[in-house]
Amino acid sequence: MPVATTKTILTEQYELENIEKASAPDGGAGKDWFRYTIIQGRNTITGYRQGSQRTVAKAVKDIVIELNERRGGKKGRVHLTPSRKQQKR
């Protein structure tokens, strides 16, 4: 992968591009389906979610937040060990 492309992937955040009313996806039933598109540079994620437009928008925004949090890598973990209790004199 060229360096410029790698740099772009590392610096660009995931963003919600759009949410639109859609027919049920293959294997889906019912009504109130929405198709959403999340982008990051040239990468595109397309998904379907059922519900009201408000609940779908909130859920997809949460997905975008989680994707961006994952990009940062795992946060450092501290290994805590209990200290010895001091003996009473």
Detailed description of the structure:
The longest helix has 19 residues, at 53-71. The protein starts with a helix and ends in an 18-residue tail after the last helix. The protein has helices spanning 3-11, 53-71; strands at 15-22, 33-40, 43-50. The chain is of the alpha+beta class.
What key attributes describe this structure?
alpha+beta, 31% helix, three-stranded antiparallel sheet
Number of strands: 3
Q: In percent terms, what proportion of residues is strand? A: 25-35%
**Structural classification:** alpha+beta
Question: Which regions are unreliable across 5 or more consecutive residues at pLDDT < 50?
Answer: none
Mean pLDDT: 84
Helix percentage = 25-40%
How many separate helices?
A: 2
* End-to-end distance: 66 Å
Question: For the CA atoms, what is the radius of gyration?
Answer: 21 Å
- In which order are the strands of the major sheet placed? 1-2-3
| Biggest beta-sheet profile | 3 strands, antiparallel
Overall morphology: elongated
**Total domain count:** 1
SSE pattern, N- to C-terminal: HEEEH
